[in-house]
Amino acid sequence: MAVNEGGAGLPAFLGGAPAFPEGLPLTRVAVPDQAEVESRFSAILASGQLTNGATVRELEEAAAEFLGVPHVVAVSNCTSGLMLALQAFGVSGRRVVMPSFTFSATAHAAVWAGGAPVFAEVDEGTLTLDPADAAAALAPGAGALMATHVYGTPCRVEELAKVASDAGVPLLYDAAHGFGSRRAGRAVGGFGTAEVFSLSPTKVVVAAEGGLIATHDGALAETLRLGRGYGNPGDYDCVFAGLNARMSELHAALALVSLRSLPERIAHRGALAAAFGARITGLPGVRLPALAEGDTSTWKDLTLIVDPDAFGCGAAKLAELLRAEGIDSRRYFYPAVHRQKAYEGLAEQRPLPVTEAMADRVLTVPLWSHMDEATVLGVADAVVRIQAHLAADEG
Q1: Which of 37, 112, 305, 354 has the most beta carbons within 10 angstroms of its beta carbon?
Q2: Complete DSSP assignment for 215-252
């Protein structure tokens, strides 16, 4: 990706040359080795077994080995996996405590399973669920606790496990961003009652569409396997109302090829995030989410937290100024779920000042697995240059 060399000049909003005159998209899919994918596709097509067959089993086994868990259930997408897990937990008619700073599917899954979302605060540093506020939100009769590994940053899993245990509720992780993340060296996927991953095109492991549910609970895994096939045990006498949430063999093949080079992609994304973070270190009013020492993030998203007073403008304005530089961005996650139209009528609304402040301040900038360091530093330099001229204007 060509970067404008005039990095020290005027930013584009003041008439300078754009940093990326050809445009820099937020993400580009890391397509797995095409020859191997085509070979696998050919074998699948020749077999005549296109859904939920031997390739899906192979993916489940490979993912279980990578994650260090005994059971992985492949499903059509992460959302259906969350829905099936919450149904298995029996949350219908019960409260499900979760962060509001998350993708809407976290809450949607609870609603589809008959639960009532109750939102709790996030930690200001990591943007993951605050265990203390989650504990305060849980009440007798709650159906489950949900947490999200936001952008691939691992949650404070030890504290959340205690919160869930003390309340006597299952703990479900929306791990959509987290396949490859590690908490103190241990793979995300082995925490809580279950963790659900996404394999959609923007994720670090790609299946085009797909999801994986990881669990240590064998009985739960069997229920989930039934659930992804309508609740049909094989004789069409369905034992409960499941979903059509099966993964196709073609999607599983794509994921298997993608999985093979995952460690290298995680390392590269981490290096790019570190380079970006080093370039903006000391810049007033902007930072990356905190990552605890010993933890590994997938850096599924490279998200800035912008303090408008210290930086000179807010996240929405910065997005506009970066657009002038040719740099795409998104505000993940704004608005927070409790501020979305779908959840305006919730019976129980708790005050969430930290969540609202953080949602107002986030801006995700481009990062992908095959990006080079010059490109990510070009984005960082654009942010530095914008801030310098905002400060000059302010003076």
Answers
A1: 305
A2: ES-HHHHHHHHHHTBTT--SSS--SS---B-PPBHHHH
Q: Which CA distances in Å does 125 have to 275, 299, 303, 354? A: 19, 15, 12, 10
State phi, psi for 206 to the nearest 5 degrees: -115, 130
Q: How far is CA 102 from CA 44, 60, 190, 335, in A?
A: 36, 26, 21, 10
Q: In the predicted model, is pLDDT for residue 6 greater than 50?
A: no
In sequence order, which residues have a C-beta less than 8 Å from that of residue 120 and are 6 or more positions away? 97, 98, 99, 100, 129, 130, 133, 134, 136, 137, 350, 352
The pLDDT tens digits of the residues spanning 33-76 come to 899 999 999 999 999 999 989 999 999 999 999 999 999 999 99
Give the three-class secondary structure for 171: strand
d(CA 289, CA 305) in angstroms, rounded, equals: 7
At 237, list the tokens.
Answer: 């006498």
Read off the pLDDT of residues 114-171 as tens digits, 9 standing for 90 and up.
Answer: 999 999 999 999 999 999 999 999 988 899 999 999 999 999 999 999 999 999 999 9
**Cα angle at 298 between 275 and 179, to 5 degrees?**
170
What is the rounded CA–CA span in Å between residue 377 and residue 375? 5
The Cα–Cα gap between 186 and 357 comes to 31
N-terminal to C-terminal alpha carbon distance within the chain:
35
How far is residue 166's CA from residue 363's CA, in Å, rounded to a whole number? 36
Q: Whole-angstrom Cα distance, residue 306 to residue 363?
A: 8
d(CA 81, CA 281): 39
What span, in angstroms and rounded, lies between the C-alpha atoms of 198 and 74?
A: 10
